[in-house]
Amino acid sequence: MSPLLFCSKIQEDIEEENQKATVLSQKTKLNENVCIRCCRSFGIIFNRKQTCQLCKLYICKSCCLYDRENKGYICHTCAEARELKMKSCEWFYDNVSKKFKRFGSAKVVRTLYKQKRKDSARRYHTDNESDSGYDPSLLSSKQYGSLQSLDRLHQQVEGHDRDTE
């Protein structure tokens, strides 16, 4: 089985389990008496209930594991979801999108142009969403990689900056 199919299968299993838990937890006090994952009843001495540190639902000892990082128990479903997030590098893309509000080819072109024009009087150091520097006409232009198109891009960005100030 390919890694991509394996990850999608795990993702489907996690979503199915979360849907089941959502439906079961909506029943009044059902999760107070039984494990949300395996539906076994809780006892006072044996099969005591634990709270998952991530989903905050009650689970039994057989459906959870101790998490040293959170210093508490997490259910197997939340542990699988965390592992899938690590293996698929989803955590990386989430952090990148939070850190850089604007990224991609427009930012690369702009960065290259800034390096070329370091002696320019105006320096661009903001990274906000309103100043994207994207010009769709540059993509259709036959002179995309030429110096003329970079000059047009620079003029457009300067005009946009003046408009926003």
UniProtKB/TrEMBL annotation:
Region (Disordered): 119-141
Segments traversing the membrane: none
Name of this chain's protein: FYVE-type zinc finger domain-containing protein
Gene Ontology cellular component list: cortical actin cytoskeleton
Organism taxonomic ancestry: Eukaryota, Metazoa, Spiralia, Lophotrochozoa, Mollusca
Species of origin: Mytilus galloprovincialis (Mediterranean mussel)
Cross-referenced InterPro entries: FYVE_2 (IPR041282), Intracell_Transport_Effector (IPR051745), Znf_FYVE_PHD (IPR011011), Znf_RING/FYVE/PHD (IPR013083)
Sequence ranges assigned to domain FYVE-type zinc finger in this UniProt record: 8-96
GO molecular function: actin binding; myosin binding
